[in-house]
C-alpha cells in the first residue's frame, strides 16, 4: 500500500487564508499593516525568484512589503547600515536578508545585526538560544513547516523516534530541537554517522535534509514510517528531493513530495512569523 502524500501546497493555502484574516484583525486594531522588509544583494537568479514569491505572499495576505535591491558590488558596511536603519523603522516588523550574499561578505556578521525581534528567519543567536531552552520564540521557517505538516496529518510526534539526516543551522539542527520540544526521541545523522541505514530504519519519523538527490532509498526506511523530504535538488533537469520518492512511498505511511511538500510551507511560515513579530512589537 502506497503512502499518503502530504499536500504541502494545499495545507499552505489554508494557513495563508487564516493569516490573511489575522492580518485584517491586526490592521483594524493598530491602524497599520504588519511590515516585512526583504533585502536582496546581487543578481542571483534563484534568489530573485524567492524574493518575488515572498513579496507575492505578502500581497496575498495583506502584509506590507518593503523590497531593497542592492548591487552585486555592495559593501558589507552598506548592507549593515541598511539593516540598522530598518531596525529603527517602526513600519518594519520583520527583516529578511536573502542568502546567499555576494562573495566576500560575511553572512553571519550581517545577519547578527538584525534585531532579534525582527528576525523572521529565526536565525539570530537569541532566537536560536530560546529554541534550545524550549522557550517560545520566532522559529526557523522550514523546520516550522515540517512540524505543521506532521501535526496537520495527525502524525504522532510525542514518544516517537525521529531521525533527522542533516545538521545544518538552517534546517537540521533547529528541526531536531523542535522535534525534541514536541517530546520525540531525536537522532541527528550526518556525513560522519556510522550505520546510517540501520539508524534510519529505526525511525518512526524520518526527515531528510542532506542536500543530495534521492539519497534516502527504500532500504533505509521502515514499513509505516512518516517521511519528510526537505531536499531541493535538480537531477536530469527536474526538481527532486533527498528521498527516492517512487520507491520509498511504497513503504512509508506518509511522505512529502518534491516539489509540493515542504517547499510551499517555508514562505507561509515566514508570513506567519512576520505577523507574530508585529504582534510582539506592538504589544503594550
List keywords for this structure.
284 residues, alpha/beta, Rossmann fold, six-stranded parallel β-sheet, three-stranded parallel β-sheet
- Tell the overall outline: globular
What pattern of helices and strands is seen along the backbone?
Answer: EHEHEHEHHHEHEHEEEEHEH
**What's the structural domain tally?**
2
CATH architecture assignment name of the largest domain: 3-Layer(aba) Sandwich
> Averaging pLDDT over every residue, what do you get?
96
Largest sheet: 6 strands, parallel
Helix content: 40-55%
Overall SS class: alpha/beta
Number of strands: 11
Give the N-terminus to C-terminus distance in angstroms.
53 Å
- Which fold does the CATH topology of the largest domain refer to? Rossmann fold
Give the number of helices. Answer: 10
In order across it, which strands form the biggest sheet? 1-11-8-7-5-6
Low-confidence stretches: none
The CATH homologous superfamily of the largest domain corresponds to: NAD(P)-binding Rossmann-like Domain
In oligomeric terms, what are we looking at? single chain
Q: Approximately how much beta-strand content do the residues carry?
A: 15-25%
CATH class of the largest domain: Alpha Beta
Structure report:
With 284 residues, the chain is of the alpha/beta class. The protein folds into two domains: 31-115, 3-Layer(aba) Sandwich (Rossmann fold); 141-263, NAD(P)-binding Rossmann-like Domain (Rossmann fold, 3-Layer(aba) Sandwich). Helix content is 42%, strand content 16%. The chain is built from ten helices and eleven strands. It has helices at residues 8-30, 45-61, 76-87, 107-112, 125-132, 141-152, 172-181, 196-201, 245-248, 263-282; strands at 4-5, 35-41, 64-70, 94-97, 161-165, 185-189, 205-208, 226-229, 233-235, 238-240, 254-255. It has a six-stranded parallel β-sheet with strand order 1-11-8-7-5-6. The protein has a three-stranded parallel β-sheet with strand order 3-2-4, with helices on both faces. Strand 2 (35-41), helix 2 (45-61) and strand 3 form a beta-alpha-beta unit. The chain is globular and about 50 Å long. The protein starts with a strand and ends with a helix. The mean pLDDT is 96.
Amino acid at each position: 500500500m502506497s503512502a499518503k502524500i502530504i499536500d504541502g501546497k494545499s495545507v499552505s493555502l489554508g494557513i495563508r487564508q487564516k493569516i490573511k484574516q489575522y492580518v485584517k484583525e491586526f490592521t483594524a486594531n493598530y491602524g497599520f499593516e504588519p511590515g516585512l522588509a526583504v533585502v536582496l544583494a546581487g543578481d542571483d537568479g534563484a534568489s530573485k525568484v524567492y524574493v518575488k514569491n515572498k513579496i507575492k505572499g505578502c500581497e496575498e495576505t495583506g502584509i506590507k512589503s518593503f523590497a531593497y535591491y542592492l548591487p552585486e558590488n555592495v559593501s558589507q558596511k552598506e548592507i549593515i547600515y541598511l539593516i540598522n536603519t530598518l531596525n529603527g523603522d517602526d513600519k518594519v516588523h520583520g527583516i529578511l536578508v536573502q542568502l546567499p550574499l555576494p562573495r566576500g561578505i560575511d553572512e553571519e556578521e550581517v545577519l547578527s545585526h538584525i534585531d532579534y525581534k525582527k528576525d523572521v528567519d529565526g536565525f539570530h543567536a537569541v532566537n536560536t538560544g530560546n529554541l534550545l531552552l524550549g522557550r517560545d520564540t520566532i522559529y526557523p521557517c522550514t523546520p516550522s513547516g515540517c512540524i505543521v505538516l506532521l501535526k496537520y496529518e495527525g502524525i504522532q510526534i510525542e514518544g516517537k523516534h525521529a531521525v533527522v539526516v542533516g545538521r545544518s543551522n538552517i534546517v537540521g539542527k533547529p528541526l531536531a530541537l523542535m522535534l525534541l520540544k514536541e517530546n520525540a526521541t531525536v537522532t541527528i545523522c550526518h556525513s560522519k554517522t556510522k550505520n546510517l541505514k540501520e539508524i534510519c530504519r529505526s525511525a518512526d519519523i524520518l526527515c531528510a535534509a542532506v542536500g543530495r538527490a534521492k539519497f534516502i532509498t527504500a532500504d533505509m526506511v521502515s514499513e509505516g514510517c512518516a517521511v519528510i523530504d526537505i531536499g531541493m535538488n535538480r537531477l536530469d533537469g527536474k526538481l527532486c528531493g533527498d528521498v527516492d520518492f517512487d520507491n520509498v512511498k511504497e513503504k512509508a505511511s506518509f511522505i512529502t513530495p518534491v516539489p509540493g511538500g515542504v517547499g510551499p510551507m517555508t514562505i507561509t511560515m515566514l508570513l506567519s512569523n512576520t505577523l507574530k513579530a508585529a504582534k510582539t512589537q506592538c504589544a503594550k
